[in-house]
Amino acid sequence: MKKLMVLVLFVFVSISFAANYVNAYTTLEEPLAKVLFAEFEKETGIKVNWIRLSTGEVLARLEAEKNNPQASIWVGGVGVFHVEAKLKGFTTPYKAPYSQFIDPKFKDPDGYWIGLYVGPLAFATNKNKAKELGINPPKSWADLLKPEYKGLIRMANPNTSGTAYNVITTMVNIYKRDENKVFDYLKKLDANVNMYTKSGSAPGKDCAIGETTIAIGYLHDLVKLQKEGAPIIITLPADGSGYEIAAMSLIKGGKEPLEAKKLYNWILGDKAQGIIASWYVIPLSPKAPKNKVVYKLEDINLIQQDLLWEAQNRERLIDRWNKEIGK
């Protein structure tokens, strides 16, 4: 009888200490994250305490908090940073039941991260500003170097933005890893850039309100602005689009591992995939409704990317960017 009472007490204590929340870092835009996490809480009763950070900021936090993690899951963010987080031991493997539906090339073979959607790089041009200046929208990366675009382009800073680092790796692939040609291009592009923002989505927002004439960003962010009435023209680079695989990882040593796995599983499920598909992204799960997708992968000239190489060389390439361009 005494053993039974001890067992019941143990079970009661275990249940009472089960978390009804999960701490998360997210790189999704705040309105999108709010909808997604609110729906999860509504369905499960588990509250998501989330902080929105740029991709580079998440990686910096994981580095600083390695011995005492303050979050248990990372939702969103450019896949190459998730690869880097794996290499540095910041994340932990997990193969969720729904992960079987994601193409192997869009997920880690060991289960450290999984892709949620693909976001190609694209250009936005403010129609009103372009008309006023008498210029046409750029249609390629080569176009961005034209003298008529001097001081008219806005992009993010690769120190804090995965979007901007994706611009660098796009050039690495276009120039077949000839890094001298890559940085020659980036220096010429710098002459036409009016500002480097912290966030990858900021240039598009600035373009939408006429603070800059041209912006480099991810296609889905620009489509959303256009659908909301922004006077922008969207063009995809004919010489090849780099792209993000927005991914998700569990954080090693996170204090709410069970709740984090529940959120991970739920995001790969039908309800969450329907929400994600409404963001104008290109979802990777076949569970996402196709009628909400504006662009398909086959419509875009995507370059071939090597996420492992990009992760292994990120710090070196950004250091060179800082020395030669961002100084």
UniProtKB/TrEMBL annotation:
One of its GO terms (biological process) is thiamine transport. Residues 1-18 form the signal peptide. GO terms for molecular function: thiamine binding; thiamine pyrophosphate binding. Keywords: Signal. One of its GO terms (cellular component) is outer membrane-bounded periplasmic space. The keyword Protein biosynthesis does not apply. The keyword Acetylation does not apply. Gene3D superfamilies: Periplasmic binding protein-like II (3.40.190.10). This is Iron(III) transport system substrate-binding protein.
